[in-house]
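Fold this sequence, please.
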Amino acid sequence: MPITCRREYMIRSYKRGIATTASWGCTLSLPLPVHIHLRLLCSMFVRLPPIVRIQYAPTLTSPCIRLLASSPSYVSVVSYTQRGPGHVLSVPVSGVLRPRYHAASYSRVFSRCAYLMSLCPHLGRIAESFSNYVRRRMANPPLYLISRTSKKPWNEKTSEEKYNTMGSWFLGPRGENADILKEKMSSLVDQVKNGRLQYWPDDPVRLRVSRPLYLDSQSHYLMIHVIQDFITKAMSDSQDFKDSVDEVQLGIEYLGTQLAQHSVPFFSPRYAGHMNGEISMPATLGYIVAQQYNQNNAAPEGGPFSSYIEWRVGQQLCAMIGFNSYFNSSSQRPDDIVGWGHITADGSIANLESLWIARNLKYYPLALKQAMAPGAPFDFIASTFMANLCNGEQKNFYLCDAWDLLNLTPTEVANIPTRLSNDYNISSDALGKCLEQYSIQTVGKQKLDADFNITKPAQYMISVANHYSWPKACAVTGIGSENLVTIGVDYNARMDPTILENKLKDLCEAKQAVYCVVLIEGTTEHGSLDPVGEVIAIRERMQKLGMSFMIHADAAWGGYFATKVTLAKKKRPESEYAFSIPLNEWANDQLRNLKRVDTVTVDPHKSGYVPYPAGSLCLRDDRHRFLTTWTSPYINAKVGDDIAMGIYGIEGRCVQRQFAAFLSHEIIGLLDGGYADLLGTAMLTGVKMYGHWATMSLESPVLTVTPFNMLPIEKEKPNPTPDEIKAQQEEIRTKIVNRRNDELEHDLDAMSLVRQLGSDTMINAFACNFKVDGVINTDVVEANFLNTRIYQRLSVLTVNDDLKDRPIIILRTELMQKNYLGTLDMFKSRMGLSGSEDLVALTNVSMETAEEEIKNCLVRIQERPSIHSFLVQGTNVLYLVYLPMFNVENHKRQLIVTGTLSGDAMQEYTAAKEQNNDSVFTIHTKSTVLSDLKTLDQILADKKFVGDIYQGLPQVYGSSPILKDVEFTVTSVHTDQSLDRQNLHAYPNEMPFYLYGSSKEYHIDHVLGSAPNAQLSASGVTLDVTPALDDSKKYTFTFDREIEWAMQPFTEGSTSTSVSEGTITLPQNAGDIFVDYEHLNEEIAADVYIMVPRDSTMSDEQIKADIDNMSWFLAQMLRCKGVLGDAGRPEASTIKEGAYFAIVSRFTGKQPTDTKALRSAQHQAWVAKFEGGA
């Protein structure tokens, strides 16, 4: 006979000290034994929050269960028995709303209740009522925790009202809101102080000091405890205390001054270089206030509130992306997959964690199969456990081969623990402990590959426009950077889905697995969004063929633009579009599809206006987070403890960035339009800047600027004519560039054109080219030089760079031909370029700076009469070795000539050489009249020139030569080789040298067949070869033990036929050896001509004084007292005929050209400035 029982629960709420009771529920009789009753209730309520964690106790009368519920502030759960109230549990509403307790978390509870319903209809009704209660209670979770004082919702505000609100979010480029920031900082300090005072206010913070009191000679003593304030007035009045405080102030002033002078001004509208920008004041204040509490989210007990804030921010980002989250729980079904997110240091860490998940998930089924082997812990399920393959078929899990298991869908793998728990009662703890010995994190990838005979490593697919963090992450996770396969892009720099699908089909046919396809949603250089919808469709097609993989979206830059997706679907007044433009159709489609990918990287410190460092990783399936923890790297069947954020991911938890994102989301409004309009205004600015740069060519006769993103006419027509392009440029300038935003509001044609311009987000890449006499330059290298020089002029790179000299700050990027292929060919073609070289591109440009740098381009590409310089070798027969340059047309020659000096010059040179055998000697052509300067070809045709001989290299020609006005007559040309790029080739295997002279005195000079290179010359070498050489013939020789391609890590070349072998001995004197890398490879170097303009009225004496002075002060050589400094020989029409002039040598003040040397020089400059007392 069944035992009846009575159970009544009353939930009371306390609001403002008034006890109220609201009841809900049902009363029913349960004709069940007590032990059955208890078991069923425990099963039903095992997932309940604290509000229903109630002790069960049978009663003797009135067989019923009564569930009463109420809402708001505090709730009290009271259990009643015959003897009155029993267990009482009071919890705040926030406890009920803890993150783990949203509706989706009860999916397993509801499924169990269905089972209960089959046993007892009454319990089924309880389950249904409880389900409705939870959904009703969680239907509208608060979007924001901070109260709103604005009377209007954001979407009801006008453009002007929104602009006004946005003005309060930032300090301002001129510090306009500095007083507000000071006020909030002061309030922040007060809040921190009050928080410390509230902690045990009756227990003052004091220091207990123990002083010994000796009682006898045997050193027995008592400890007397003296209580004193921790920081006493005596301490604060002491000079030591005051000195320390003063030092802090000095430190703040030092850092503030140096940061202001040497920091890139991300806060300024003049900065248009990268994805950096101003940070919001809410984010700044959130960061600072969290810093004062120094919490640690490694475990909830180290930061309970901060752990909750991190969870909340993660849920906000999931909702922004479109994943199921806490904020849309009312619309979720019980079996819906729920998203999860957390904060990382940056996008690189988030990307690394996504690889960690993909790798562990891919190998999880293999580890489970090993755990089912005979004698293994789970051998008892091997015959019955089934796998749902990605092609829709079912197959015995243990009988699946490696290919089947490597291609289970991410959801299927995540379901395995739940299935094992439901079907075999295997707990998550037991599953984790047993799988540990088989896990990839324990045994390593190599062992599992060997055990399953996997000889072809799984691969990652990603766009060629990927971030550098991806190959690094592949190296760290053991996947290997060579298994990161890059996929080509279309003309908009978006991943080409056709190339991707073909590659996947090849891998599928070869039975080579794929971990993941990575989509770049907001490329660094172009702002492009990869095709999310198409790649998801490709995965569905590949799954039918038996291949499955994860899809990750690297939306570090583009993620926050997903806030605009919702708004983009709504009808908005046309006048609003000039305030905050919507996403273009492509961008809207891709960002709306983000909710269908598996994992997403989003960086709050990029388009979220949050301080560095702050990245995040969001997961569509919250169960995948268990793959990013070391304590339990197994997918858990239980509902996880979401509040324990610190156990997931690679790093510990810096809570400042979480609070920065939280407060910025709260104040600006992540999910109700604030961020959407803020980014929309930035997008409008980006489009107008695009229009400015795209039309800049109309304003200059020598400069052309080509945007990477095509003009609408270029998208519509394959090959538009120059006139058609110019017409659209005129339209853009007239309708958009030259108009204010408010003028655009009612011009529907203009706004239609706006939505067709620029990139998918707001990043716009450009490249400059130039014209010579109206003809466009076609050389990629020269265009690269122009763009690099513009970048150097408009960026902050060295300690001496002055921000005030930079009208704008820009970014340089390099588009590699091997990656961009046809896309880059098209871009070059639109610029008027041809060639296979990589291309340097910019994100901004200043026309004035660009036109100035075009003059330097002309120095490089135009041959003009100039000074020519030679190394002097030999004392028996005189040889001159030309000092060449690879990149300047005037000096692109490797030339070796022999000849004679006039008069007694040879004897005087020989004597000087003997007295200074540690110095090299050089000779340089000269002219007293600029019009008498000659080209190198003219000198060879004349077979003579007049020059000065110097010890070493001169700084100013004509200053202190050892021999002046010496005539050199050319008797023969030993070597004359052009150094134009078409004559250069790959680096040879063995290092070649020209050999010249005679058996009395041999000389050598390195063959410059490749660039960059080094000029290596030696005079008076000793040669010992067999057979002996014929002095009447020309020879080259190679060092068989000096491999040139290994010194310069490029491809190997061919070698010549050997006619003699032996040894060569270099001379002992340092002056007989010449080594140059710097001048040979300089991107630009020209003699600087110091002269007076044609209209100068200065006296000859003053002219000479000023020119001589300026020659030695090169830092001011552009303009000084009416004197001009011009690189390269000037046009005759611009100078005063017959006036005194000076020429500063091209060998003066050169900078290192190789990257390592340049960085080293920059580092040394910083050290010298700040540590050397400069």
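Residues 239-262 form the longest helix (24 residues). The chain has 35 helices and 38 strands.
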